[in-house]
Write a structure and sequence with these properties.
Length: 449
């Protein structure tokens, strides 16, 4: 992970960060899977790389990835590509997640659009509608995208992005702590709550958490907010932002808010003061038993404890196990600026990222599930990555990018309201008051649209 959700990963971009590490202007992607399958699928080995004329090119790349393993692995991919194509080098720029979308818009206005842009077309919809991203629909490398995930990078029946992996979300746990405490893997919400109580009685924080940045506080909510409840309410975000529904009309959403209020009480005492990285470190070092987090954090956790005995289980929103689902989305997605002066070189790099070699470098370094048809797996798979994959194989998953999420002012206001709720004294938290505040805030946004 997105990232938070500094998705990923802090503030206005977090929701879409966590839904695929993209910006926050999410709306309906108007996808048509049939339209995206305009050409026959080809294997990575058979996909021809776009031609370039051999002139020296420096590709400008902008992203907001915060996880060191991902940043380092992307550098490995670009270095290997340059080794094979010495005339093409990279200027990689990292931008703050909370200013990413605004910074890209400023660059476009100044006629300084980057060649390659981290994001998602339906997550940066204003720029997509304005024609700022290159239509990739007929590029051979897009046929390497798994058909299930082409809608995630499609807008108005056109493919604009290349996703290279999935972000899955669940509960990472310390197997040794669970064993010592006599805790079985929770299959229901009541069991999860009981496990948290058992750990509290033993003086162990149940959850490693950070309310200081989006990568943690949004991840804490993400697998519940877009998991089981999304299956019961497939378009609840869209129905709310369109004014058709209110939060008060959705008892499932009130249930989600109640669970957030309950579970946040079992986090580390300094959650208000630490960052995503520090929270990951606490979990890795055995100072908290669980971490409600996305698969993007595996590398960060392993950097602090390579030998830790960790696993993953599905977040149980409900007491009926059949109602519980793991949320997932395409994560690291790349687009080409439509005004790029180096389109051929950028396409050639995209073809490399979609190839077996490029995908293998990414898989080995990041330990996530591939979004490509070649389905490359890490040479040595981490136990957490293996557990995520096992859950994925059960089919009990829900793609949270098929319908609109929060976007723009909705996203910004929602995050501020939820953060205030999490920061509040648990004794004074009131879910009914929270629902009313969200409805009032969203109604004002809709009225001013």
């Amino acid at each position: 992970m997105k990232k938070i959700l500094a998705l990923c990963f802090s503030s206005t971009l977090v929701v879409s960060v966590l839904s695929g590490c993209t910006s926050n202007e999410t709306t309906s992607s108007k996808t048509s899977p049939a339209a995206t399958a305009a050409t026959a699928a080809t294997t990575a080995a058979a996909t021809p790389a776009p031609k370039d004329d051999g002139k020296k090119v420096k590709l400008t790349v902008v992203h907001y990835m915060v996880e060191k393993p991902k940043v380092d692995t992307f550098k490995k991919v670009t270095d290997k590509f340059t080794e094979k194509n010495p005339n093409i080098t990279f200027d990689i720029q990292v931008m703050p997640v909370d200013k990413f979308s605004d910074n890209i818009k400023l660059k476009i206005a100044a006629n300084d659009q980057p060649d390659i842009i981290f994001g998602r077309p339906a997550g940066m919809v204003e720029m997509t509608q304005a024609g700022n991203f290159l239509d990739l629909t007929n590029e051979p490398f897009t046929q390497q995208i798994d058909d299930k995930f082409k809608p995630n990078v499609t807008y108005d029946n056109k493919i604009y992005g290349l996703p290279i992996d999935l972000m899955t979300n669940g509960v990472m746990y310390n197997k040794d702590i669970f064993k010592d405490a006599g805790i079985a893997i929770p299959k229901t919400y009541s069991e999860l709550l009981k496990a948290a109580e058992t750990l509290k009685a033993k003086g162990i924080p149940a959850f490693a958490a950070s309310w200081k940045d989006g990568a943690s506080y949004m991840s804490f909510m993400w697998p519940d907010m877009w998991g089981g409840p999304l299956v019961k309410m497939p378009d609840y975000a869209g129905s709310i932002t369109s004014g058709q529904k209110k939060f008060a009309d959705l008892p499932e959403y009130k249930g989600f808010l109640t669970r957030v209020g309950q579970l946040s009480q079992y986090a580390n005492a300094d959650a208000k003061d630490i960052t995503y990285d520090r929270a990951s470190q606490l979990f890795a070092q055995g100072k908290a038993a669980m971490d409600i987090m996305g698969s993007f954090a595996i590398g960060t956790i392993r950097s602090y404890n390579p030998q830790g005995n960790f696993g993953v289980f599905m977040f149980p929103s409900y007491d009926n196990p059949a109602d519980n689902y793991m949320t997932l989305s395409t994560d690291n997605t790349w687009m080409i600026g439509s005004k790029s002066k180096n389109v051929d070189a950028a396409k050639k790099f995209f073809a490399y990222m979609a190839s077996d070699e490029g995908a293998q470098i990414w898989a080995d370094g990041v330990q996530t599930i591939s979004a490509l048809k070649n389905n490359i797996k890490p040479s040595t798979q981490d136990s957490m990555a293996s557990d995520f994959l096992d859950i994925y194989k059960t089919g009990k998953v829900v793609n949270n990018q098929l319908k609109p999420l929060w976007y723009g002012q909705f996203d910004d206001s929602w995050q501020k309201t939820m953060l205030k709720f999490i920061y509040a004294d648990p004794k004074t938290r009131n879910v009914d008051a929270l629902v009313q505040e969200l409805d009032t805030t969203f109604a004002k946004i809709i009225a001013n649209k």
